[in-house]
Specification:
homotetramer; 511 residues; alpha/beta; 5-stranded parallel sheet; 19 helices; 16 strands
């Protein structure tokens, strides 16, 4: 029988899954549930050592002999600090020790309750990874707990620390079986031909494989996922995710229904965006994707084709849709004529429109989705290229970053399409928010500012448009005019029109 | 109507309770629930500023003008980082700004989901206090949330940061009233006569006041609380807590029933041990306690007398109880004869026995309750005093720290009473743990070691006892022998006897 | 004979000066110079304990017995980590332990050289203060070393950590005497009447006392110090510094010639601005200053009078000086008529001009002297007061923070005097910088921007001036016009004129 | 002409060497020396942007366009904090930005001097590497400065931060040429065949190549280097270092004379042990070494042979040397008979003796060279292997870690050779230390303890020896006896004898 503590059981299950066979355990009451569990596991042998400092070095010696990670498990309080010398030694010897410490719940630290001190980061830089497990109370925290343990256990050649807060009562042992926990595997090697083959093979053999890349474009996927609805025939069983942020929340939710996801990225970070990650490969995701696409040219995959057809259908509809005068109309027109320039989209509404209408790769600050630097990023880009650089940007992002225009570096190569509807347009699309009286003034920051003044101040060629013909003419000029100085076209729209057009478009895409 | 998010409502309620009147708010969707709430509060005026960097300085300017804290509220992601310049400036100007940032739940950080970065410590040392609120799902997390907000808002003359993770859905606004939240007040001044009077007055005027001090002795309170049971007549309405750790868990639980606690301590830390703290005074708690005791000599308080009588009654019973041969018998005998020497108790069973039988203040490492240094602390103490120094210690603590004896500094002034029952005795008292097969070997670390070898190694005079007469004779010798070298008496007992005696004693005390 | 290591000797000298009498020393070669020194000091008794974990608790026990700080000295590497349990216990018991660790020089950390690990912050939050001493190679590093040791040793009721990097060769012991080191004393108590009297008495009894306060005004002191030159008759022997940043570098250098400085500030921070600090009092500096000023009304102090006369003389000259058209002319005219409004000055040239011409307290972000928030701070201030708020600001600061104007909160109460000379004016005053070809374009950021556009964008009333009569008329308008909206006057000047006028003014002040 | 600031010039030289071509520069005075230098470099183009927040995003945009790192250079104070949003975005986009910030010298932080705040770690976890350069005042600090810049610039796909403290006077520009700085190259890829060939080729083509590995054995190299003295014919021109700590300080000093070192290690850390590192390859050093050894079997290299002959000669002498009764005699005898068991050596004298007499790989905690866990490590090792495990250990290490014996896990497989000369033997060998009166009692911790007691306490078979015949018999027993329990042989020697034998041995080796 195992402990009644869910995080302890998740931990135990994953220790076994990751191949742990030896554990040095130190006496204590707070860690008794963990020690109990380790002792129950047939695959793990326990060694009791009372002095924790000595116990740490026992684990080091065992790990040297076994050439694989060894657990050392201590109770809360200074017990953990006694491990520091062995952990430091292991760190510099590049030996794996898995420190497991029991802890009080975070809410009780520094409240003059017994044996509490700040444990989660107590081993400092001597551990490569330190995690502190939640006590799960719903599926999301259960997922989180699993992920944290996996993140620690995929580390190689270095000590790690798993801190386990446990609420009283501590001593219940009536769980008959450990939960079957998803294990995440990690392949740190650069992409060898064998690995490449392995991934490709997995993809092509899957019944319903899907290749996903973000940063910042998954064109029309948001629409597609909306159209698919609950049709299980479109849910992939195998997702290969080669990194980059996904703009569409709907797409992310959809991919959480897949059976498993393999990730390839250059830094080897464990990002479990779809909550079903099972493999992480450190390597060049784009190269893997190219290889798979090449293989599929030879031998098309029916599920991939099915999705391609779906996307093509939506593209046709989107292309046929003629929005009334609005931000969307401006972006659609712009994208129709822009050709192969470098195009930067700002966050919020702008990048969402790009995902519907752009025909080419675009740039966007999707790392942390801030609005403060979109204009500067595009401006800086224009200083280091010979191509034309366009920036499509909403009003809040533009004015926020207007200092991007205040310098001597810019020239006629840099052009701006400013979508000004007098507020953060995106806030009008958020369901539920309309009930708040604070929305317009404080959340969406309604304003009546125009870019004309700042353009004058910085010697930027200024154009504006307030209706469809002006907008079209303006974009034509923006795209074609010869100019020594940057050019800006400000397209004024009404936020209610923008909202309406978006609703119509969404309806169209559902047909 | 207020947000449906409980942590947001707790925060809002406490902002009002702490006297906030001005808030600079920056647009965003994640922080919309907070902005909504601020806008709903009649006592708070909101000012919308879109550029967060500028907003931070707005808050600084307002706080300068008002000479009280001003809130600046931002959404998740880099929004927070834009505040850093203003927060740094406020830090060096010693101006209070309360940074409130919305955040994604911790489980989603670094999972390539939008606008997530590690926010809780993002403002570094420029804020005096940074807290990240839980999303409450039970009373304990609700209490924790309240406490964290209070901890941030009691800070004066410095910026603070309150990070607020909010789970989706974000936009529900159907809570009719803010919760009435306990506010913790903080008095940073040293103890002025007026403050002293104020506290004393509160104490003496209370119906059922109780003075509590720890570190490490609340003699017989554990027994008393057990005896009192559910009798409401003994529950205090006003607790004055002058610091130090409380050994008895039962006492701590009991004091949580009190209406409120005032704390006096020298560092001004906010430790909410009894979950009902309302005032913290920075100052010398012992001096306050002395003053109150002096006042009560003049005018006794009936509730305090009632408790004194209860404790006296238990003392009589404890005194009358004659334990069979056991650790308890040894400590009782030792305490009867030790007189006014300096006595150090080790953690675990030893200090628990002191709380029943010691007649004088004792020393114990209750800061973090570690077992690794009890012997060394007592040994070090003996190097810096002319008094005799005794150390009463269990076997695990003793052997753990046996290197305390390996040096040339010790002399006959230092004497040790070693209670050796072959395991961590305390583990036998923990209800539920007996069900675990791991208890004896791995949790309680049963062993068969004696101190004789280490005493020989370090030239310590060694005595031992295995029955009542030997123990009494041994203690007599330990107390009275002249010696140039340290003296150790090892009292061997059976852990089952120790357990039985403890049970009997507990029964006696319930009569 | 003492060690040849200068930082070790400074440390030893200050340990004695701060009253250390007991040291627990652990064997090692890297710390041998320190142990040697401690053993040489007649005032310090050494106790050798080999196991560092035990040694830490020895020090704790001694500090308990002595009720004053005890040193524990360890060698480099994991030795330090072994102290963590005792230090954590001392932290929660509020007992003072002074951890002294020898270290390799920082340049050798993590270079696979023996016994090196990152020591300076290894004890984390369990020590109140952690410093790592430089190995002095000139007077400034010697001062720095002294200050760091003092900063650690003034801490009370908490462990501290002094890390001592020592370069090889380690073993030279030929220094005959310890250096006589300046000790900094710290008084944590709030200002009692006795303390107030003590400080006042010291001030009034001093031969040449000087009261200094910053943040942000020491009007005309820069000029005065320039005039005084090397005249020793004006150098104070006792400086009472009540906090705030000093704008004038010349004044700071001058005050370093004083014999000693006492500081009064609310946070009790140890800021050794004049390099001669000897006492820090935690308390309200303004109250102390008021008291002293009051006392001097009754009994004037000749040295203070001498300085007052000097400043009055300079004031007369400054007042009489009629600058040609320039930023200075604008500020002088503005200050002559502004009356008692709230005036914010931006950093750089603006606040320097205020120090010459303002007749009243002003506001300025001198905490960290950033330029990014001056306008926002003033704007925010205007939202929380009923007074008129003026902001005097240079061009770089203004455009940098122009988003301060992009919101709906501002009204006619807020007015801006913008000094636009097309570059960071201050850079023209920095001697030596003119030799760099990068100065104009890259260091001073020359530009040709006007505020007119941004004012139009944000509906700010815009005025401008390009010569003396326009400037005077503009300022009259700025001061007197009724307006619902903010008003801005942009005064355009030539940076060469600004530079010339400043030179002339400096000449005048030297007469 | 370049700046007179040495750290600025080292930085500039390496920026060029690492291929930087674009720099975004922000105005300021503290960073003027850096901006000046960048502007002087023909290979670097500067772009002036005044708002640092915007400047950061300019750099991001440029780095996107160029697909290589771009510098952004800011002045001290909050300027740096304004970069945080762009740096966070770059971090999540995996784009390289090199943040260069000017700073005040560390000694002036928080002293109320202008524009100072704690800069070195201000960008937190958003930069992969943050370094703060010294202001060089000798060759070692110059080396340190070079190394830190290299450490930052080898990072790929992530922002880094180089902080540059600069002492006044700031503005001198009279250095005619940048220093020619050693560039360190980094190859992050796992070992491809091409890389393996490249390294092998470099090695075999070198005139005087040397293969060095540590952890913890470079047998007889210490002696060899002593014998070689100043003979330049033995100095390598190309060192291939495959990691692990070098025990011999003399060897490390010797290798600093080599022209350059290439390092191969698994973590890719940049450890410049010999101060002449030029290439770091992330990979399996042992595999590279094997390959090279294999190649040299086919085609021996004369310089390598020359060294092999030297080592062989010393081995003969060492082998022929018959030490008098001493620790050395014990180790020599032990090593002669031990065969192929697993042997752990403790730090200090023990591992030094192993480097002279061991004939096989040994284990030793050389990560951080602590003495606190050698016995526990060996003990733990014995719990996870079927081989016999010996631990050769000095007295201080043994008693320090005697708790290693206090548990139920050990059996007859584990055997200890304790070299007890009553003190830390190594301290007698440190030249200069004998002048300190503190040496014996406090530095070397002389004691008179025997292990007999602790062996009795823990049921360890105890043997001892006090002369040559006993020692030999004891070792025979230690090696051959059948036992269910661990066996310990304590060899008592006189530290003066140990010292004398070591001196004689050193003399022998110089012949």
């Amino acid at each position: 029988m195992y402990s009644n503590k869910e995080n302890v059981n998740i931990l135990t299950s994953l220790l076994v899954a990751h191949g742990i066979t030896h554990a040095v355990v130190c006496p204590g009451s707070r860690n008794a549930p963990i020690v109990h569990n380790l002792n129950e596991c047939p695959d793990i042998e326990c060694f009791s050592v009372t002095d924790e400092r000595s116990a740490g070095f026992y684990a080091l010696g065992m790990a040297q002999a076994l050439k694989r990670p060894v657990v050392v498990c201590v109770t809360s309080g200074t017990a953990l600090l006694n491990l520091a010398p062995a952990v430091a030694e292991a760190c510099y010897q590049h030996v794996s020790i898995v420190v497991v410490s029991a802890d009080r719940p975070a809410s009780w630290i520094d409240q003059l309750d017994g044996q509490t001190l700040p444990q989660p980061d107590a081993l400092g830089r001597f551990v490569r990874k330190a995690v502190s497990l939640p006590e799960p109370h719903d599926d999301e925290t259960r997922w989180y707990c699993n992920r944290l343990v996996n993140e620690a256990l995929v580390v190689r050649h270095a000590p790690v620390h798993i801190n386990v807060p446990i609420t009283e009562p501590l001593f219940g042992f009536s769980v008959a079986e450990l939960p079957l926990e998803r294990r995440i595997e990690f392949s740190p090697a650069d992409m060898s031909p064998a690995t490449l083959s392995h991934i490709t093979h997995m993809f092509l053999q899957a019944k319903r494989p899907m290749l996903v890349s973000g940063q910042p474009m998954n064109p029309l996927y948001d629409e597609a996922v909306g159209l698919v609805g609950d049709d299980e025939g479109y849910i992939p069983d195998f997702v290969l995710y080669i990194g980059g942020s996904i703009v569409s929340k709907r797409l992310k939710r959809f991919l959480r229904k897949a059976k498993e996801t393999w990730v390839v990225n250059e830094t080897g970070e464990v990002a479990d965006t779809f909550m079903n990650l099972t493999h992480v490969f450190q390597g060049d995701g784009e190269a893997v994707a190219d290889h798979i696409r090449f293989m599929m040219v030879m031998e098309p995959h029916p599920f991939v084709q099915k999705w391609d057809e779906l996307l093509a259908r939506i593209r046709t509809q989107a292309s046929a849709y003629e929005p009334a005068y609005s931000s969307m109309a401006a972006v659609k027109y712009f994208e129709h004529y822009v050709g192969d320039a470098e195009v930067h989209y700002a966050n919020s509404s702008a990048i969402r429109l790009a995902n519907s209408f752009a025909q080419h790769p675009v740039w966007c600050n999707r790392g942390v989705n801030g609005i403060e630097g979109s204009l500067s990023t595009a401006a800086g880009f224009s200083c280091a290229t010979d191509s034309r650089v366009f920036c499509v940007i909403g009003d809040l992002s533009f004015f926020y970053d207007q200092n991007a225009l205040w310098n001597q570096n810019l020239g006629g190569r840099f052009r701006i399409l400013l979508l000004n509807n007098g507020c953060g347009g995106i806030f009008n699309m958020l369901p539920g928010l309309e009930q708040s009286p604070a929305r317009d003034a404080y959340v969406a920051a309604r304003h009546h500012t125009s870019a004309e003044g700042i353009c004058q101040q910085n010697d930027i060629v200024y154009l504006s448009a307030s209706d469809m013909p002006q907008m079209r003419a303006g974009i034509d000029t923006l795209l074609n005019i010869e100019s020594e100085r940057p050019v800006l076209l400000e397209v004024f729209t009404d936020p209610r029109d923008d909202e309406q057009v978006m609703k119509d478009y969404n309806k169209i895409c559902k047909i």
